[in-house]
Amino acid sequence: MRRRVLPILAVSLLAGAALTGCTTAGAANSSADLCVPGIGPGALRDSVRISGDNAETFRVGSLADADLLNSERSLTVAADDRSAVAGEGSIVTGTLAYVDAATSAVLRNSPEFMQGGGTEVFLASSGDVFSASLLCAAPGDVVSVVLSEQDSAGFNYMGGKLLLIAEITDVSGVAAEGRAQALPSGFPAVTTDADGRPGVVLPPQEAPADSRDAARIKGTGEVVAAEQIVIGNVLSVNWSGDVQQNTWQTMVMSFGSEEATQSRFRAALTGYPIGSQVVVIDAGEGGAVVHVVDILAAV
Q1: Which pLDDT belongs to residue 182?
Q2: Closest by alpha carbon to 20, among 128, 126, 167?
Q3: Most CB contacts within 10 A, which of 9, 178, 241, 269?
Q4: pTM value?
């Protein structure tokens, strides 16, 4: 299976939006009744019609001729279950198609499009037009966004209007959620604040000589495989208490797969369910480092 974290034209969506100031609104269990999309419908409301059951047979019907001044969002397919919707900072998994809004020609789509398998990861955020369109999306939704010429140019599509159609397969919050369980002896204590941001309290003892890992929160999602790209947050602290990395202060990141990663702890995440918070003690060269990792998505 071909795996990608982001589509070509949307490469800045996850890399360009910071998860600062997130509250519980970013959780995947945000109330749909209170959720307001970042972009609303307009003249083309309910005019996007799609057909086909896979990427090869996918087609888009002709759109009404409208001189759009602003980009518009609509739900082409609305999921019945809206108990979990994307809030500010939520991680959204799905597939994406690019369509010329004037001709309805499909320019590019995910090979897994219309088959219910999410291979793209996006950030729901008010930071840009596409990310804002994902706010309030639920698994099972098909979100259609007709971009104005100005917004289309931001996706390197010049002289026309771009239609983005996103098939949503999963939505997750910005932190692992669930009951915390005790860590084995020799592990540091981990605490979290009201937003799920972790802190580490190191034990008054020598750093362990061997690497080890354990789940503080056990998720309920699919089990991470070695070849999957993992998305999440991490706090890394050495045994002296110095913070080496803290994505909670910047943005979520990709930890890659076991074969392609720059994170020394990535292999330790394999076998844990999505939604877990995993504590990894890396006793490698340069001294022991404690990594508190929230696994938010995997593709």
Answers
A1: 94
A2: 126
A3: 269
A4: 0.77
Segment 22-34, tens digit of pLDDT: 333 344 555 566 7
Q: Reduced to 3 states, what is the DSSP secondary structure of residue 191?
A: strand
DSSP annotation of 148 reads P
β-strand pairing of 198-201 with 253-256: unpaired
Rg (the chain; Cα; Å): 21
Question: Does an H or E element contain 73, and which?
Answer: strand 72-77
Alpha helical stretches, state H, the chain: 12-15, 129-133, 149-153, 266-269
Looking at the chain, which residues constitute the CATH 3.10.50.40 domain(s)?
A: 12-172, 189-298
Specify the 3-state DSSP secondary structure of 277. Answer: strand
* From the candidate CATH numbers 1.10.10.10, 3.20.20.140, 3.10.50.40, 3.30.450.20, the one assigned to the domain spanning 189-298: 3.10.50.40
d(CA 60, CA 62): 7
Residue 123's SS3 state is strand
Both tokens of 114, joined, read 């219309």
- Domain covering 12-172 assigned CATH 3.10.50.40 in the classification: yes
Between the two ends of the chain, the Cα-to-Cα distance in Å is 10
Query: Which tokens is 21 given?
Result: 């100031």
Q: What are phi and psi of 36, to 5 degrees?
A: -120, 115
Can you list the positions of beta strands (E) in 89-141?
A: 91-100, 106-109, 120-123
- Using the structure block, give the residue that is written with the tokens 């918070």: 277
* Dist CA 118 CA 244 (whole Å): 32
Residue 235 confidence class, pLDDT cut points 50, 70, 90: very high
Q: How far apart are CA 159 and CA 149, in angstroms?
A: 7
Q: For residue 167, which amino acid is it? A: E
Report which of 125, 117, 72 is spatially closest to residue 95, judged by C-alpha positions.
Answer: 117
